[in-house]
Amino acid sequence: MIKKKVTKILVPLDGSKNSQRGLEMAISVARQFGATITGVYSIYAPPHSEFRGVGSVEESLNEEVKKIMNNAKVLAAQNGIVFKEKLMRGDIGYNIIKLAHNKKENFNLLVIGNRGRGSLKEMFFGSVSNYVIHASKIPVLLVK
Known about the structure:
Low-confidence stretches: none
Radius of gyration: 15 Å
CATH topology: Rossmann fold
Order of helices and strands: EHEHEHEHHE
Strand content: 15-25%
Helix content: 40-55%
Strand order of the largest sheet: 3-2-1-4-5
CATH superfamily: HUPs
Number of domains: 1
Mean pLDDT: 86
Number of helices: 5
CATH architecture: 3-Layer(aba) Sandwich
Shape: globular
Structural class: alpha/beta
C-alpha cells in the first residue's frame, strides 16, 4: 500500500510539446491522488540583460506566457484539477529547484517534460531536465 500521498505537483512549462506532455501526465497523476498542480514558467534572464528596458520584447513574451498558462489552466479545469501558476525570472533550472524545495509550498512531485536530446548534444548544451533530476530532493517524473 502506498503510504505517501501526492498532494501538490510542480510542472515546469515552456510552451513546447514536451512540456505539454508533462502537464498531461501531471493531470493524470493529480486525478488519481486528488492533487493540485502548480505550473511554473521561468524566463531566462542573465544578471545584466541587454534586453532590459526593451518593452516590446518583454510585452510579447508576457503575452505568450499568459497564453501558455491559460491553456494549462483550462486543460486542468476540464479534468477537475486545481491549477495555480508561478512566473519566475533568472536561471531556469535553479528557479525550478528553488521552488520545488520551498518548504511553504511543500511539493510532493515534480513532473517535467524531457527534450530527448542525445548525450553528445547534452554535454555541450546542458539540459534543464537533466539539472532538475540531479538536483531535486523530491521525486521527479520525467516525461518523454
